[in-house]
Amino acid sequence: ALQMPQRTSARRLPLQTRSFYQDVVSGLSQEQKKLHPKYFYDEEGSKLFEEITTVSEYYVTRTEMAILQSCIADLCAQIGAGASLIEFGSGSSRKIKLLLNELEALSCYMPIDIAQEMLSEACASLSEAYPELPIIPVCADFTRSLQLPAIPGNQKKVIFYPGSTIGNFEPMEAMLLMKQTRQLLEPGDGFIIGVDLKKDVQVLHEAYNDRQGVTARFNLNVLRRMNRELHADFQLEEFEHFAYYNAREGRIEMHIRSAIDQQVRIGDHVFDFHAGETIHTESSYKYDIDQFQQLASQCGYASKQVWTDPRQWFSVHYFEA
Ligand code: AVJ
């Protein structure tokens, strides 16, 4: 039978897809085409990211876990008993288990994540493992609004923001986010954040260009997502993964590069790509310890303690509001 040609009119898209569409159109209309890295995390992308964390070259997750394991006693002493824990970008909630195992009488755990599926799976498994713990999942894009549901009671609040997700923000945006989180807290409340450190360029390069190509698949998955959700017509074979360390900016940049001159249709828009042109899909800023402490202090935080690994590749900070 004859099929109707697929044409997407923005009006027919569900609300979330519509804001994705609008962001895509405005991002691809810029001189340097770009997409926000939050769009990596559909169901497939969240799985691919979990796979990245197991790849040998990707030191980030492994190193942070090791730091958390070795500083857990100090961390518990900073947090104290009976606190409420709020996690930003909780993902599979693997790291929080370290804390949940050791902390005394938490009043509640509030994981916030943009990936619905992963969030509900994580919460289901956590509520089995910790039946006494009140869990309040929030599926939200915390880059858009930081309004949280009320936390019952009046305990000390501690925000947990691991994974160096803060590295995805431009320094000015990172400042803004830190200032906004500070507004959620009272003096004496805590903020635990994992921040990736500047290091040997080769190590960085390999971490974002793993030999198995998992990072490449993660990056290119956003094209699949646009094809699926926005009925775009990206030809996947004609695009390639490209990641490098931009030393001047102190950041890893991930791009998707067009192999040829081509056009891509998305809804009512057509985008031209010339051979070699890229979409900038992610920046991952790397900090020095004191550089990050300075940033935090400009946002109203006092640095209480910082932990790192023997090679000084990653840092975990405890700040007090
Ligand atoms: C989610 C920000 C920690 O920048 O390392 C991994 C995501 N991108 N490989 C990072 C990512 C490519 C990641 N963070």
Automatic annotation (TrEMBL):
SUPFAM superfamilies: S-adenosyl-L-methionine-dependent methyltransferases (SSF53335). Transmembrane segments: none annotated. This is L-histidine N(Alpha)-methyltransferase. GO terms for molecular function: L-histidine N(alpha)-methyltransferase activity. InterPro entries: EgtD, EgtD_Methyltrsf_superfamily, MeTrfase_dom, MeTrfase_EgtD-like, SAM-dependent_MTases_sf. It holds the Pfam family Methyltransf_33. It is an enzyme of class 2 (transferase). Coiled coil: none annotated.
